[in-house]
Amino acid sequence: MTVEIRIRELQGTWVVRAGGAVLGESSSALELSEGDLPPVIYFPRSDLAMAFLEPTDHRTTCPHKGDASYFSIELKSFTLENAAWSYESPKDEVSRIAGHVAFYPRDEIAVEQL
Questions:
Q1: Which stretches make up the DUF427 domain (predicted)?
Q2: First CA to last CA across the chain, in angstroms?
Q3: In percent, how much of the chain has pLDDT > 90?
Q4: Residue 2 pLDDT > 80, yes or no?
Q5: Are 18 and 52 in contact (CB under 8 A)?
Q6: Which domains does the chain have, with CATH numbers?
Q7: How far is Cα 26 from Cα 4, in angstroms, rounded to an integer?
């Protein structure tokens, strides 16, 4: 079964917040659409406060994108375990997301356009 994956550059400025803290703001965010799944926003690492993101041992493999590594978000009063992910060496078809980080949709995390 072939899944269509589309990556597009987003217009405007995008921000990601966790627990009220701004983790990043970017005018170079990418949107990845994969089949019928909701689109996912990927932020360049250079636009994120990576000090909030702690690498974990969790890993997954996507047949279309490759191997994903995960990060927990360390906030003052709590930690969001495995709340963000990145494809360090994605498959060629989605190579544009290399060096980017995406965030799971959950109550404590907001990804929005300014």
A1: 15-105
A2: 37
A3: 91
A4: no
A5: yes
A6: 5-113 (2.170.150.40)
A7: 26
